[in-house]
Records
---
Amino acid sequence: MQESLELLSRAINEWMPKNRPVSQNPSAPELEKILDVSLGEQGCDQQSLEDAIKAYLHYNPDASQVDFFKLLYSGRNKHALLGDWITSLSNATMHTYQVGPVATLMELELIRQWNKLVGFNDGTNEGEGVMVAGGSQANLIGMMLARHHVCPDYKTKGAGGRTLVAYVSDQAHYSGQKAANVLGIGTDNLIAVASDETGRICPVALQQEIDKSLAQGHIPFYIGLTAGTTVIGAYDPVAACSKIARAHNIWLHIDGAWGGPILFSDQHRHLLADSHLADSFTWDAHKLMNVPITAAVILVKHDGALRACCSGGGGEYLFHADENAAYNLGERSIQCGRRADALKVWLSWKAIGNQGFAAKIDHLQSIKTECVEMVEQSESLEMLAPSVYLNVLFRYRPEHMTDEQEIRKLNIEICKTMMRNGGPYVDYAQYKGRYGIRLILANGEVTRQHISVLLDQCELIGRELASQ
């Protein structure tokens, strides 16, 4: 154990220098030539293990740096990181209170606080939830809850010739397709509803799609809204869609994996003011809350819904009817062995508090506004979509260039060139047929200067590439 601690200390203090590039990863074929990742019959010496760890840290993009703008997370939460280490040390699992007593109480408190923010714990409903292995699994369970709501016997008897239909925005995360596949709904029965010019699902189009399904004798059962779409950060209109859902007895789910934390902020929570109208809600703590991957939760307004939908088996040897039975979380989950992710989230929330997360969001929203202003003031940069949250989608467009394919190719190459140069690290994305540079603001330490450097680099590299 002591040897491992010493190795970890060297990894932190020596092998992750502060001035390292954000990205320095070669292509996969190139890296295969550099590294030996083979496994064999015989074990290796300590130096070989250390060399592998050094390579792992060296070539992996440094998501802790302020210039990491590529994904929906950035920065480092030291309290959560400590919790992650302690969790691995104890190696607790979470199916019963007996084997994870403290983590169980922490998870239940986290669920109470999340439900309070969303509005599910309102005095009438207590709300419930369970931590899961990422937002995709949370969205899967949301759809599974919807299936159980409209067809409770589907759990035991299967489809029985029924065709269930789910509806999401054409800007929704691809986990909806995975869920429809896994649950036997069929990806053809997941309808991508048109979004408006701001990237929000169109309620009129949603009603039209539901009417089509009903005319075919199908059963509409699930509406999946998004709070903070992956590309532009749009928030679907909850109130209007809730009215449609209630009229047809359809389960309403919100994927707030990225945009849910806006609820911490009194200044900006209006973007998700109607979250309490949903039936279930996805939240990823490993995104804007900076908890190490993975840490996610499915929240449910209706007490007992998770157990009714997900439980099955284990009563003979695991879920004992003892004094702690009410605290056993395993019957709410589709997993048996489940890591105690509650500790790292609880430690960071305890240390930072609601106000700390609110301050981070307010700061980043302010930086976002400045970023948009800088793009709009530039003669060669242009916004491709409105930015209400922490996604900024823009592109470099030379005055002489009008062909969309040329502009697409140029902006993709700008991103790749910056990556090869070691940063800033951004990615490209497509929105309504046009490609641009997708900037994600998730690191609370980012400043106006960091954004200015990034935009200057985009223009400089863009000019050089366009002149070739």
---
Amino acid sequence: MAFDYDTIVIGGGPGGLAVAYGLNSQQKVLVIEGNLWGGTCPNFGCDPKKMLYGVVEAKRQVIRYHESGLPAEPKVDWPAMMAFKRGYTEKIPTGTEAGLKGAGIDHLHGTAQFVDGHTVRVGDQQVTGQQIVIATGATPNIPDIPGKAAFKTSTDFLNLDTLPEKVGFVGAGYVAIELANIAVEAGAEVHIFQHNDRLLRNFPQEYTERLKKILADKGIQFHMNTNVTALQTTDDQVKVTTDSDGSFTLNTIFAAAGRRPNLDQLNLDGIGVTVEPQGIKVDDHLRTSVPSIYAIGDAIAKSVPKLTPVSGIEGRYVASVIACDTHDPIQYPAIPHTVFAGPELAQVGVTLESAKQAPDHYTISDQPVGSWYTYHRLQDQNAHVTTIVDKTSGKLVGAIVLAINAEELINDFSELITHGTPAKNATDWTPVYPSVTSDLGYFY
């Protein structure tokens, strides 16, 4: 059978684009995107979020230096900050599409729906491919409660023209914590409603409790073991009813209780693709239950973090599988993940919980480092670092960092773990001193 394309990619985000560009020199490729070219991360996800975070963190650093030479306290100009963000994001869709055109990669804008394992319909157009890759990402969960139409999402938050006076977030994961921190630093009254007593459940609780106290000291009001049961809007206000903590009148409320794979429109059941609650089921070659169809990124069920770099790894891997450049199962490196919460909370490798369950196998070094030069200089008295070392090999295998520059240190730790560097070799080179990296030899 002759196909219109060698490979069709559904999703024009980082993962899908990694597939398309990886195959473009060898195959005829089509990319289909139903939303903005470039995907979630650069348009309304991690990239614009970190731009706003950078501004509010600069403000917070000035406050830390209040008695050290910077007495004036700055204020966030929300419209100017948002203009700064839009100066970047508004160029992403056209820039991404221009890149596809320049590379000679065919692309369609519209909602894709499977007809069979080789055929996709987009509007009134039908196209076929020898292989099809699903890279559709994820979409916010919206709690199914009375008045749920009043919920806004992270996309709405990252495009606010003005900051509401009182805001709420349902959920206590990455999205809620990061956006709540931006909002409170910018001057809003902030409430977080969480159905249980944990925030950031993938991180050690002793660390999340430290972070919770820091955020509460900033003014974030946590309503733990609390479910939002109904919303009612009047004018520019929303009444938030809960099951255990009364009701609250806010100006807006954001659904931030996780994200689910964006699969609803694909007709996967109709063509026999197996889908689990966490996403599409794939094998160790990222192939679905239909042999001609692969899936990557946030669309799939997996144990590794659903992060943009992971989507890129998977996209490049699938391209190599389709091109027959590899027959090996996918192997993931150590994947660091960070919550930009002001301070940052980051971890990589073996978890603290796993290490505590195997004391004969691992050595845990837990260190408050707020008095160290690096953190004293930054006035970060709450800085804390835990490292996990394999007793047999002497190699670093895991780390957790709570600090204002945790992203830097966790990257150093990730490199050591990925390359299997023994402790004795971790500092057999000379980094810039003083710096975050120059502290490595003291952690384990």
---
Amino acid sequence: MSEQKFDVIVIGGGPAGYVAAIRAGQLGLKAACIDAFEGKDGKQALGGTCLNVGCIPSKALLDSSRQFENVTSHFDAHGISTKDAKIDVKTMVGRKDKIVKQFTGGIGMLFKSNKVTSFFGTGKLLAGNKVEVTGKDGSTQTLEAVNVILATGSVPVELPFAKFDGKLIVDNAGALDFDKVPKRLGVIGAGVIGLELGSVWRRLGAEVTVIEAMPDFLAAADQDIAKVAAREFKKQGLDIHLGAKVSKAEAKKTTVEVTYEDKNGEQKLTVDKLLVAVGRRAYTEGLLGDGTGVKTDERGRIEVDEHCWTGVDGVWAIGDCVRGPMLAHKGSEEGVMVAELIAGKAGHVDYDTIPWVIYTEPEVAWAGKTEQQCKDEGIPYKTGNFPFSAIGRAVAMNDTAGQVKVIAHAETDRLLGVHMVGPCVSELIAEAVVAMEFKGSAEDLARIVHAHPTLSEAVHEAALSVDKRAIHKAN
């Protein structure tokens, strides 16, 4: 057993952990990062869930499936004729894997350039800011640090009656690696993962049925935006059942029989593949040794303050294993904040302006409060909205579904929330986040010159609409 000493040890190499390690290295701290994620080649694959089986690979498949749907369903509107287009799933998945390997390898290069020491294995926090590393072969070594950052991420929630088997009943990772398009795909959960991966396989020809226990669609989003999204998904062929609770999922030889109950009583559904996407939970099992003093809540999340400090000297926690939204960019910014605090600098994350994005077609994005939250909190507000159908660039792109909605304080005009559904809103939301971060108002957005013709004009017009002075629609 050997011992090495560091200024900072990060346990977890996902978007929270690897960013924290790199930032610590940039600040001149001797940093190490421990991660056990293994790629298809059996080698260490930095980047965690996001890079390996989450954000990046899902976007690769979403783009491939979008290209295929354009060829088969939309190019004729542009005068482009195609015939007998086919999808080679093996090639599509191979492209996804190549992209993943490119980025996981890239993190390794960044570690080298920032002098971050990488350990392949699992990390366990011991008392006195020591960390035990267990390698793939079972060997152990003990490291010591002035500061330890816990960034172990999250794992999919598994339903007791629908255990993952990796073949017929799968989690998000399994749904990224189908070897062919399933004729019938069942999805439990109409959240981000369920909608995105359901969209991928629907575009490629699968009959997709989504079963959601909540009575409202996209309950976390502004309901005006959610209604538009639900309507568009229905047009695309996603069969979404709300207020439906699954009680049984029985894997047969080649199919899965799903039993659920809705307002009409017990229902049966037979599918060829079943994706269970009912959420994720903090992954902290086996992370804390005796006497560390670090506490977890009833959901297994590590308890921290607003600066991600655990209350134990030199021990911090960030990302999915702590409170707050399970978003890669949230974890990354927490990683930067903690590294900077450790280095004696100012670190900060504004949790009120974190953007949310669902990468479906149309995309859904928002930041800040919804209209319902304003009502519930008794905040006086006013709203404005503008449809993409009145935006020249959207019409030219043949992509007009959706709208932008701006919510501002009725008395101060300060931006409270901006919500979007439509083309490229994952990019458009950044303007709103910047404006909100600088305490901007609807008037600020309305006074800024936006290039024409662009999709961003929808943001401009929605801001004008707050005070009933939109130019290109009736107020």
---
Amino acid sequence: MQSAQNRPDLYSNVARNIVAPAWALWERSPYLNHLRYLEESQYRSLDEVQADQWTRLKAVLKHAYETTAFYRERFDSIGIRPDDIRTWQDFNALPVLSKDDIRNNIDTMLSSVVPREQLIQRKTSGSTGVSLAVYVDDASRQLKRACTIRHDRWAGWNLGEVVACIWGNPEYKKSWRGHLRNAFLERAVYLDTLRMDEQAMLEFHRTVLRRKPTLFFGHAHSLYLFARFVERKGLEPPRPRGVISTAMVLHDFERAMIESVFGCPVTNRYGCEEASLLACECEAHDGLHINCDTIVLECLNGGGPVAPGEVGALVVTDLTNYGMPLIRYKVGDTGRMAMGPCSCGRSYPRLASLEGRIADYVRTPEGEYISGISLTENFAMDLAGIRQLQIVQRKIDYLLFRVVPGQGWSETDRKALARLVEKRFGTAMRHDVEYVDGIQNESSGKYRFCISELGGDQL
């Protein structure tokens, strides 16, 4: 008799060849057409890739100037019109867009020709603890959806196959349509990173052995934590074809543990809520290919590009979002650019490494582990009055919340924070709030949303 992990997944063919096209037709979504093009075009020459980028960039700049008050004023203030930008050097003269620029000007950044009711809000605080909302038009979202699937396939997965997600707050639970979509098309099973206790991990382990996912997807350290749990408990290891690690810096020791336990390569990925997938490793695992089909990615230091191998601030221009253009947006992360071509044959330039995102876990007095990335959604995003937030665990039963209060901060928010602490960490967890004017990056350039001072082999 075949084990659960070795039995063929016959339904995946149904999901891929029948359910996915039918659902796309019902949604009037072109993402499968985009996917076919992206699969065919990914081995274009670098000259072709950059020519396509330039054409898309010029169109976005023209659209932004003509349809948004923000960019029209920004361009006029420096005496530049879109037609004046004829080279990449001209483009580099445009000012960098900050998170505060977006926060303070969001209404004037929206295109006047794209109805607001047709835009999708994407809200994030990422690893910086700073809540931010942007809007995306549906055409952009569908192209990015196809890009994500193409990059998922680099890890060995295929559309319609089961995915094991070590993640928080799954979207599908928000509606009956989401439940149907997940059951028949996306086929994702979740381990909620807000509650990675022993019971939850054992239940998830049983589920993945039964559902036999071909892909594991999750926060870098969450994947590591689950892999180490499987090893320490002597459990039968899952055997996916690939693992995708995202949302945090993937350390070498984490990659080694995950690959040892799961018996397959880890694919490192970089993205942000504001512009979706930014870069991803291919099968060669030699740097992260920049997603040139939807973005321009710059690596800057002091306003100019850094040499390959040097650390710089990452700046993104979205080539597809016409509803709310993002031009030279400083995402708040740092990275290094790679030199030379990749052995996979794709010409897309690569990030050698991502240097920025680190978030520790909080450990509760009851022994549960809670992901710092997931906590972002439950504190910085849920408390509208918070400008910026950092959580520091000083003792097993004591947390310090460093809060940069926004204009709307009030005693009501302070009480709401206390309720969230009790809900997420239990009644035994004590806490204090320290009000500060700002929270600085570390000397390495990294911002840590969540810091554990417990020391030792905490996780």
